[in-house]
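Give me the 3D structure for MobA/MobL family protein.
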Amino acid sequence: MTTSLPPDSAIFNVRVSVFQRSAGRSAVAAAAYRSASRLTDERIGERFDYRKKPCRDAFIIAPPGAPTWAYDREELWNRVERAERRRDAVVAREVLITIPRDIPEEDRRAFIEQAVAPYVAAGAIADIAYHCPRAADGEEQPHFHVMLSTRALDPSPESGFARTRNAALTAMFESGGRHGGGERGEALKAERERIAALMNDFLARAGSVRRADHRSNAARGLHDREPEPRIGEGRKRAVLRRRRHDRRTAAVSAMRQARIVANALTATEEEIMQTNPARQAKGGIRPRTKMDFKARLLRKRFPDLLSVEGWAGSLHFVDTSDPSFTRIATKDGGHVEVRNRIARVYGQRGQADALAAAIEAAGDVDAVERLEQLRTLQRRGSGIRQRRKPDGIPALPAAEVESLADRWRSRGYHRITEAPDGVWIEIGRCRLQDLGDELRVHGPVASDAAVRAMVEKAAAEWAGEVEVWGDQAFADQIWLEAQRQGITVYDQATGELYHPSEEVRARYDRDRSRLKAEGEEIEEIKRRKAIASLLLEAASGNAEALTRLRTNDRDLADFVTLHLDDEQRGRLVGKPEADVVAALADFRSYGRAARAAEDERRKAGPRVVGYVVSNEHGAVELETEDLSEAYEYKDVLDAEGRSAAIGTAYSDGSTSFEAAPRRPVPHPDAETHERRPT
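Predicted structure for MobA/MobL family protein (678 residues):
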């Protein structure tokens, strides 16, 4: 449904008028027109037929015990006319009430009856006509007309009405002057307020977020919202008949289209402010709309809080992006957080404390906790704390706040709030307030995580030198963490280097010794992993890796070259590195044993590894490990008339023809070898 109303507003239109005989008004004619019926005015002898006019419903409500003629529309209003004798008599009173569209059709009859009930209780007869024409936006425009008799019922006069006007009914609409009852217009204002409250009750029952407001735009602070020019029913019908606007309806249509666009823009900005509360304190939508938005957020979280609209004007933002957590920043530098029915207040004393107390009084929290600011850490030489005024409210440019927040996020912190009084970082139970060159700690204690975060900022942004102010326990925490991160700590009170307590100094020395031992252990693990990796590369056949392994660890090199054969080296390459690291000591033992065995073999002299056959020119024609094969080959050469010799090959690579080995006994099935080419 497209409407020019804001998303939280319902249409409210209540107009009260009178039918005066001197103006040519006839109560009978008006009743016929509104009820879409045919009635005859006996006083002037004229019949009014409006049966072709649209009317959803028409009915009469009369006080208990009313005569039957009170429910006959024609007789009722003719008797009303007869009861008035003056030419300028007020023959009837009318109330026009528009029904909000969000009230469903099935509830509208009940709404109408409850709206007119006080008039009937005051003695008036109410003739009600319910209309629902099409509005300019193409949607329905439900409303109802209530015509009220101005005199109470009285059977004594011929007309059936009392000789005097109904004072109780008049007092509901008129006040001041001769009417009494307070200032002029107060009675009508109270009646409008009653009807608005009834509308809101029906809207709430229908599940609508819209609410009616009886006050004028000026009273609601909407000074920039111009009233629309009045458009009568006749002008509306003429526009529909011509299917084009005249000057006035075109102006109204343009105003409504502009409001529709403004509403869409406001809705978009409110979505942004919902997820980024800092935008509530920056440019954008109108200040009044921002206040209404903050009031809605506040009312949604704390439905029993009194004077929500009053509080909204003193707030920078209301953060309700987390369903279980509410964060509020006040304009005087205070902050309120509500989680698990506990309210925590920190920052400047003032509005935040009062708001937290009001929330507690409303029963929305069980306790209020104050996080005092008793500790600071600042860049050395900044002098911020010394220049600080006792009641001064910090104020940082928006660009600087955004830059500080981005730096915290880059260091891995995400529970961050950007506010005009700095960047707030939530770490455990304490809150850090970053003012650029100063960090303030709000809360009972500073956790190790908070201290670490503060020193990290000092290392990144303050050139490694800080001044600490606070109790000794806090200063000792800062000093201890600063030693780990290479930061120099000074005492803010004296300007000298800070000297920690003996206990903290001893703790630091213990930590340093432990870290040194852990570092050495880590280095040893790294060295083992590196040598294991080199061993696997050498086993895979990498000659360069084998050379480096022999230079760094000869035992492991001997393990690869002397202890393992090719098949074993292939299986070793497929082993996980962790398994190799665990077995390095055993591998070294195997390598040493293999080297010792090799040395023993070398001391015993070279061993026979095979035989060679040379021709008459001394060239080797056959190398074999089988002596029989060598003699068979020699026999072939001798048979060809070539002088052949058999030599012995040794493990050191030498060959000797001096002492030929004896011919082995031939096997009976031995075959004669063919001569092989040289």
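Residues 606-678 form one domain. Let me know if you want a second pass.
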